[in-house]
Each structure stands twice: as C-alpha cells, then as structure tokens.
Amino acid sequence: MDVRPLSDRSAAELLRKLELDIIVDLNGHTQGARPEILRHRAAPVQVSYMGYPGTMGADFIDYIIADKTVVPFDQQPFFSEKIVHLPDTYWACDTKRTIGESPSRHQALLPDPGFVFCCFNNNRKITPAMFDVWMRLLRAVPDSVLWLKKPNDAAMANLQREAAAREVNPSRLVFAEDVPSDVHLARHALADLFLDTVPYNAHATASDALWAGLPVMTCLGQTFAGRVAASQLNAVGLPELVTTNMEEYEALALRLVRDPALLASYRNRLAQNRRSTDLFNTDLFRRHIEAAYIQMWSIAERGEIARNFSIRREPEGETDSG
C-alpha cells in the first residue's frame, strides 16, 4: 500500500482502519522516514527496529528492539523507548545471498603476497584517530595494504593525502570498485582481516564479511551505533575479536598479523560457526522476534504500560544457512 500521497494524519487514519496491532518503523531518523505518521498513533503498539541505531526521542514509540550488547538495560535513561532484548543479537541476516567466484588478487589490484587489511565501511565513518591507527599498522607491517570501498574522487584524494602525511605511500591504499553483490561477497576471500571503525561500527558490512568468511575485528563503542559489530561477533562465536579500547585494537591487529596460525584459527572457527551459531540462523531469529512481538501485544492487551523485557533463547534448531 503506497501512502506517499497521503498526509501523515491521513496515513495514520488509514492504518488504524486496517486494525493493525503492531507497527514496526524500519527507518527512524533516516532519509525518507515519516515518523509523524506514528505520532498520530497508527497502531496500539509502535516499535523502532534496525534502520536507526539509536533512540527516536519520541514518546509515541513504545519499544526499541535491541540486544544486551548494543543497548544494555542500564542505558534506559537515554532512550525514550522501552528496550527489548533479543537473545545473542538483534541483527537480522539474509542467509540466501549467494557468494560468487572470487577474483584473483591481481584482478583486484591487491599484492600477492602481502597482508591485506580491509574495511568496506562508508568513508564517512573513518575518523582521523581511526586513520592514525590504520597507518601505524601499515608502517609496522611491510608489504601490507589497506583495502577500502572506493569513495568519490575528492574523498579518495583526501585519504591519499592523509596517508602521505602519515609517512605511508598512498599506493598502499587500494580502492574497491562497486560490483554486483555476489562478486562483492566473493572478493572478501582476498583479504586477511576486516578492520572495523569506531565510534560508528560496520553494520551490514560486518555481516557481509562474516557471511563471506572474513574475520572482523572491532572495538566496543559507547553507543548503539558503535556496538553492532560486537553484537554480531558474539553471536557468531568470535568474542575474542572484540576489543574495548584503541590500544587493545591496535595490539590485537598486530598480533593477528604476526601469528598467522592464530588468525587462521579464527577464520576456521568462523567457517564452522557460520552454519551453527545464531547470527546466521534465520529461523531461530524469526522465532525470537515473533516472541518479542507476542509479548509486546500481551502487555498492551492487559492494559499495561510498555516495559523493558528480554526474550529467552529457544533451544537450538536446525539452521537454514545456505
């Protein structure tokens, strides 16, 4: 149903006529969002999920779906919504995405041999402090490169200039062109380690890398947006790749470079866990989020006000990973 021609009030009235029980807002404060529809109380229960990693700051959103890593209950004073914890992770993954045939390193303009640090996050997530750490890693690891998502020409020139200012040859920044999804997933196999960003983590890019079998290393941030990769790593059974400060982050990256057997053990564990842990178990996730919606509705039916709650993890079922 296309409500774009309707005013916010008219759209809310239409949704009320449909007698919906729960509305889930997947946009939050992002482009194209229309939270004012929910201000007119379009459904008895209104929920924020996935699209915006933070509070809406609105008294007409009853719940935010999260987990104990991204939004611990002690963060409630900073959220207008009540917090709902799903087991392990709030992140939903598409396990039917195909992984194509990987190109060669030569085709991807990467060195062979040579250690490939990778970060396919949007370049606006790269802070000067984060870039400092990455450049120190390149200086400490001869023949290594940093593989980045190709930005616009101005941003690419800025990154190259800043690398040179930190005594790193700009040619050691390799920029990945846009390619179809299956090829993009496949080319992760060419990298050795995904370096996450803070204070804003990899979200979809972290799940892409993990689905493709590339270990992701992150630093636990202070906010929802900075804790998403940690949530995913915990759910896929790789909590050792979550650091708590930038000193630990840099030290762990160097340790993984200098101990290939350790890095290989994480890659092997990821390959095994990809088909057995919760991050990529879509059916288990479906049961958990449905249980959350049922509990929200039960609270509303009893005439009670929204409250924080956690969904208990169901016994393991067969994963539907591809």
Summarize the structure.
Helices cover about 35% and strands about 10% of the residues. By secondary structure, it is an alpha/beta fold. It has 2 domains: about 10-85 and about 280-310, Rossmann fold (3-Layer(aba) Sandwich); about 115-280, 3-Layer(aba) Sandwich (Rossmann fold).
Features:
disordered C terminus, alpha/beta, Rossmann fold, 322 residues, 11 strands, single chain
Overall shape:
elongated
Biggest β-sheet description:
6 strands, parallel
> How many H/I helices?
10
The CATH topology of the largest domain corresponds to Rossmann fold
**Tally of distinct domains:** 2
Low-confidence stretches: 318-322
Strand content: 5-15%
CATH class of the largest domain: Alpha Beta
Q: Quickly give the CATH architecture of the largest domain.
A: 3-Layer(aba) Sandwich
Question: Widest sheet: strand order?
Answer: 7-6-5-8-9-10
Specify the CATH homologous superfamily of the largest domain.
Glycogen Phosphorylase B
What integer is the average pLDDT? 95
- Structural class comes to alpha/beta
**How many β-strand runs?**
11
Order of helices and strands: HEHEEEEHEHEHEHEHEHHHE
Q: How far is the N terminus from the C terminus?
A: 31 Å
Rg over CA atoms, rounded to whole Å, is: 21 Å
Helix amount: 25-40%
